[in-house]
């Protein structure tokens, strides 16, 4: 799916990866939020940020997972920045992400209609699951123009702890990297 969005209108954007700890998009509001029935997974290859074309790193995407909840951060992008932010995020589509629309839930009970970028299995950079030790090894040894893959994982794990989020997949990989 590539969800359409009226440009030049404000919108909610769900951050579940680097946006949580590096909110690089202009925003007027930021609220912890949850996306139900999805799990965060290090299943997307990164050839342009945390890895290289011949040695991709791993970054997160979302996979459907009934009953699960993915904790992240919702950002309110103002109309004045909408076009610029969409261009910036669509640039990531080159690495396999596409636009989706989903309802988010906040702690205070609000429902937010949000734009969510998801990399799906049919994209060229998809890596999919693997044994945790091998995934951790790939993250530990990959680096790209945006920095090391290890830093991406560590900053995500720290940000999730600060949010009070339980994410066994991320925390298991963090523990494996620490034990290396
Ligand atoms: C994120 O950091 O949450 C993110 C943003 C755009 C695409 C994928 C993930």
Question: Can you put this structure into words, describing what you see?
Answer:
The model has no long low-confidence stretch (mean pLDDT 95). This protein has 180 residues and is of the alpha+beta class. It contains 5 helices and 7 strands. The protein has helices spanning 18-21, 79-90, 132-141, 149-163, 168-178, and strands at 11-15, 29-46, 57-77, 97-106, 111-119, 143-144, 147-148. It has a 5-stranded mixed beta barrel. Bound molecules: benzoic acid (BEZ). Residues 15-19, 89, 92, 97, 117 line the site of benzoic acid (BEZ).
At the third CATH level, what is the topology name? Hypothetical upf0131 protein ytfp
The span between the termini is: 39 Å
Overall pLDDT level: 95
**Major sheet size, sense and barrel closure:** 5 strands, mixed, barrel
* Overall strand count: 7
Q: State Rg.
A: 16 Å
Bound molecules: benzoic acid
Low-confidence parts: none
Strand order of the biggest β-sheet: 1-3-2-4-5
Structure summarized in a few sentences:
This protein is 29% helix and 37% strand. It has five helices and seven strands.
Detail the topology: elements first, then pairings.
Elements: E1 11-15, H1 18-21, E2 29-46, E3 57-77, H2 79-90, E4 97-106, E5 111-119, H3 132-141, E6 143-144, E7 147-148, H4 149-163, H5 168-178
Parallel strand pairs: 1-5
Antiparallel strand pairs: 1-3, 2-3, 2-4, 4-5, 6-7
Bound molecules: benzoic acid.
Which properties best describe this structure?
5-stranded mixed barrel, alpha+beta, two-stranded antiparallel ribbon, single chain, binds benzoic acid, globular, Hypothetical upf0131 protein ytfp, 180 residues
């Amino acid at each position: 799916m590539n969800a359409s969005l009226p440009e030049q209108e404000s919108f909610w954007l769900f951050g579940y990866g680097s946006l949580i700890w590096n909110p690089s998009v202009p925003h007027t509001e930021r609220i912890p939020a949850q996306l139900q029935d999805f799990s965060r997974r290090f299943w997307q290859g990164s050839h342009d940020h945390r890895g290289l074309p011949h040695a991709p790193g791993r970054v997160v995407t979302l996979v459907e997972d009934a009953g699960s909840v993915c904790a992240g951060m919702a950002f309110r992008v103002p109309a004045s920045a909408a076009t610029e932010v969409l261009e910036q995020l669509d640039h990531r589509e080159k690495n396999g992400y596409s636009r989706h629309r989903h309802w988010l839930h906040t702690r205070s009970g609000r429902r937010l209609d949000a734009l969510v970028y998801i990399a799906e299995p049919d994209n060229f950079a998809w890596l999919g699951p693997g044994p945790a030790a091998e995934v951790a090894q790939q993250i530990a040894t990959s680096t790209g123009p945006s920095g090391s893959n290890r830093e991406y994982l560590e900053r995500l794990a720290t940000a999730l702890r600060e949010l009070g989020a339980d994410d066994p997949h991320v925390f298991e990989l963090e523990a494996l990297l620490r034990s290396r």
